Amino acid sequence: MKENRDGSDLLQSRSSSFERIVRVEFSPILQAIILAQNTGQNQCSLKRILNQFARNLGRTPLYSLFSRQPNLPTISVVLLHCLVFSWALKSKILDFEVSDFLKDDQDTISFDDSHGLGRVFEGIGAISGGGATSKLLVNYPKKQRDEILDYLFKPRFAASLQIFKVEIGGDMQSTDGTEASHMHNSWEENYHRGYEWWLMKEAKMRNPNIKLYGLPWGFPGWLGKGTHNPYIDPVQTADYVVNWIKGAKTVYNLTIDYIGIWNERPYNITYIKTLRRTLDQNGFQNTKIIAPDNNGWKIAKDIKKDKDLKNILYAIGNHYSGSWSSKEAQDTKMRLWASEDYNTYDNEVGGGCWARILNRNYVNGFMTSTNAWNLVCSYYPGLTYPRSGLMTATQPWSGQYIVPTPVWVSAHTTQFVPVGWTYLQHNHGVGKLPKGGTYVSLTNKAKDQLTIIIETMTHDHSICVRPKLPPYKVDPQTVTISLQGSFKNIGKLNVWHSKLLYNGSQSQMFMQQKPLIFEKGQAQLILGLDEVYTLTTSSKGKKGTYSKPPDPAPFPLFIKDDFSAYDEFQEPFYIAPQIGSYEVRKVNGQNVMRQTVLQRPIYWCQSETADKTISVIGSFNWTETNMNVEFEIPVVNGTDGVFVAARVDRGGCSTNGAKGVFFFVFPITGKFVVTNDLARTKVLHQGSVPIGSGKHQMSLGVTKTKAEGYYDLKQIFSIDLPATPKNGWAALGTDSFGLADFYSYTLQAPHA
C-alpha cells in the first residue's frame, strides 16, 4: 500500500536532491542577487534575476507542490518562488548558506602597491588624418558640430580624450583623402590651409591639458629633389616639419607635445637625429619624438646599438601589434606606445575591440598609450573603412551623427585615470582574469586614489580589423576583489558598468551603479560576458548627453558654389580631394578654387601614380547627375587639362584605378576625350574643341544609358554608356599636376 505523505515530509525527503539542483542550477542566479545587493542594480535587473530563478525552480521537485495552483498572477509566482526559497533556507531544510554557493566558483584578485608600481600611464587618444578623416565635420551646423566635439574632447563628459594626433598634411592621399601641406612649394608657407589647426584649437579649448601629436603620412614632392625619399636632404625635411610646429605655436598658440617621423614607412636614424637637433635649435626642446609609427618593433635593435638614438626618442610607437610587444622592445626600458590602433567599424564589435585593446595593450605589451584611428568618421560613405572612428558624422547637410559604443568604452578609462597616474605591478593589480578577460589598476602619486578597469570581451565580439585575433575563451565568473597595501582601508569603490549586446539588442553603456562595498578589504564582483567595469575612488564621472541628433537625409539633389563665402586658403565644403590639393585663392579680386599641387608628391600609397588630380563630391549611390563647371587654366604652371566626371566608383588609395564617366578637355591643344576610367585607357569618344585660353565652361550629364557633354554652352557629344560602373560620386579634376582655377560649379541629381 502506498504511503501517504504531507508536503513537509516531501520537502524533507527531497531536500538533499534539491540542494544538489540548487547548487548546480542556481549558483549564477544567487551570484547575481549578491551583485545586485553590492552594486545597487535596479529593479528591472533584479526582476530578470528572479525570473531566471523562477524558470529554474519550475524544474525542481519543490515546485511540484505548487504547480497545480491555478490562476496565480505573474508577480505572485515570482514572489512565491522567492518566499519558498527563502523559507527553505531559513528553516534549515537546505543545510547551507548562500555564500556556500560561491566557495567553489570564485577567485581572489589582489590590488597591492607594496610590491612596487609599474609604468606610467600616458593617455588614450585618437587620430584625425591619415587621411582627411575629419573632412565633413568642418561644415556641420554649429550646434551639432559643438556637440560632436564635446563628446570627443570635453573632460568627464564622454570619450574625454587625452591625446589628439593629427596628420601633417603633405598634399597626398593617405587613406580617405588628401590633406593640404603648409608648404606646397619650397618658396612659400601658409598656416591657414586645411582643418587640423581648427580641430586642435577646438580640442585645446575644451581640454587645455590634452596632448597634441603631429605626424606626416607623406611629403610634398619638392622635398624629394626628384626622388621618392624624404630623407635625401634630412636638414631640409627637418626644417619643413619644424616649420609646421612653429606655425602651430606662432599662429595658433598651440604647443605640439609629440612629433613623429613618417607614418608606416621606413625611418631614418640620421633624419631622427637631425630632427632632434633642429627642434632644439628652434626652442622646441620639450617636443618629444615618437618613432617609428610603424608595424613591428624593429627599431628596438637599433636602439640597443645606438645610445644616442635611445636618448633622443621619447617612446617607441607601434601600430596594430595585437596587444603584444617584443622582448627586445621591453628590454630597452623605453616607453612603449600603441601610437595607432583600433581601425574597426564602430558597432558593438568595434566597442569590444576597443575595450579589449585598451586593457590588453598594457597587460600583454606594457604599452602605456593607445591611440585610435580614427577620431571621427567624417568622410563620404563609399570611401575605405566606413564608420571606423570613435564617432561617425558623415552628414553635414542634415546634422545627423552617431555616438557609438567606443565613445563610452573610452570613458571607462579616460574619465577616471589622468595622464601621469601609474599602473600597479603585474599580478598585483594588472593581469588576466581566471576565466578570461583582463584587469588593470592605476593610482596617483600619493597612492590615496585607485581606479580598476575590468573587461570580459569574448573573442567573436571583439575582433579588430587587424591583426588576426587568436582564439581564446571567456566564461562568466565571480571574483573577490582584495585591496591591500595603501588601499586596504578603502571602504567603497564607485562603479561604472557597460554591457555590450549583439544581434540588435541595445547595449547598456557607461551606467553608474551603487558603490561596491568592501569589508576587511574584500568585495565580490560577478562578471558576465562582454562587459566593462570601472571601480574607482573618483566620484567625478559623468555620462554626458545631448538631445537626439537630427534624422539622416540623402545628399542634397542640387548644390551650387561660387566660393565667395570662404576665406582664402580654406578648402571648400563637400569637395573631397583624393589626389591633389584644392583651396580657395583670390584671382583678380575674385575667389576661385585652385588645384595647387605642381608635381607628384612623396606619396603614402599608389594613387598619385595616376599623375592626375581629382576631388569627389555627392552621393556614392548616384546613377544620374548633371555637373557644370567654369574654369581657367593659368598660363604659368598650369595643368594640361580639366575634367568633370560621374559614377566615379572608388577613392582613397585605389583612386588611380577609378572607373566612371570622365569628360576631359584640353583647351591649349583643342582636344577632348570621354573615357571610362581616370587613367584615360578606356576611351569612349574623342574629338576637337576650339583652341583658346581664358575662362571656359564644361558640363557632363549622365542618365541611365546616355552621356552628353557641353563645352562653352555647345553640345559636343552624346554617347551610349558602358554597363559599369552603375553608380558613384560626381567629380572634377585635372589631367596632370599643375594649376587650375574653378570659378564655380553646379551639381544636380534627379533622385537620391
From TrEMBL:
The highest taxon in the source lineage is: Eukaryota
Q: What are the UniProt keywords, alphabetically?
A: Disulfide bond, Glycoprotein, Glycosidase, Hydrolase, Lipid degradation, Lipid metabolism, Signal, Sphingolipid metabolism
Q: Which GO terms describe its biological process?
A: galactosylceramide catabolic process
Task: Identify which top EC class this enzyme belongs to.
Answer: hydrolase
Q: Which residues form the signal peptide?
A: none
Task: Show where the Glycosyl hydrolase family 59 C-terminal lectin domain sits.
Answer: 578-747
One GO cellular component term noted in the UniProt record for this chain: lysosome
Q: Does the keyword Hydrolase apply?
A: yes
Pfam families per the UniProt record, alphabetical: Glyco_hydro_59, Glyco_hydro_59_C, Glyco_hydro_59M
* Active site per UniProt: 264 (proton donor/acceptor), 340 (nucleophile)
Residue ranges of domain Glycosyl hydrolase family 59 central in the record: 428-541
- Enzyme nomenclature, EC number: 3.2.1.46
Query: In the record, what terms sit under GO molecular function?
Result: galactosylceramidase activity
Family named by the database record? Belongs to the glycosyl hydrolase 59 family.
Task: Please identify the protein, giving its name as recorded.
Answer: galactosylceramidase
Organism field: Elysia crispata
Ranked from the top, the taxonomy reads: Eukaryota, Metazoa, Spiralia, Lophotrochozoa, Mollusca
